[in-house]
Design brief:
By secondary structure, the protein is mainly alpha-helical. The chain has one domain. Helix content is 61%, strand content 7%. Helix 1 packs antiparallel against helix 2 and helix 2 packs across helix 4. The radius of gyration is 18 Å and the shape is elongated.
Amino acid sequence: MPRNAYAGLISRLAALVIDVALLTVTALAISTLPSLAWEQVFLRPAPGWFTTGIAVAAGLLPLSYFTASWWLSGQTVGDLLFGIAVRHRDGGDVTFPQSVARAAVGLLFAPLWMIGLLGVLWDERRRAWHDRLFRTVVRYTAPAHGREA
């Protein structure tokens, strides 16, 4: 595949699976380990303010992860592993507002987001519905087999 070709459905879904697995493990660690540590150190259950803070942090993790990843580098960990990146439709970096909106809508309307991915199969630039909405494209970043063409 040539560098900067538009990413297909399988690459995008595979990257998303990696991201969901990473977020699941991280959120589980954030939501359980600090309370366990508190109990070990203070020999009593963690106070409500502490567990509430942990729950908020775990709840904000997905939004923060996707927003920061797309805004700072255009790539989540899954995207990086599959050699794809989210870009503005003109090829530039995704802006912070685009990243926040893309992440929030994706998380709030996950089933619709998944159905919208089918648009990749018919669009000439392999854009999903949300790519059209947020003026983004997803491109391959690395040439095939790690060599420049």
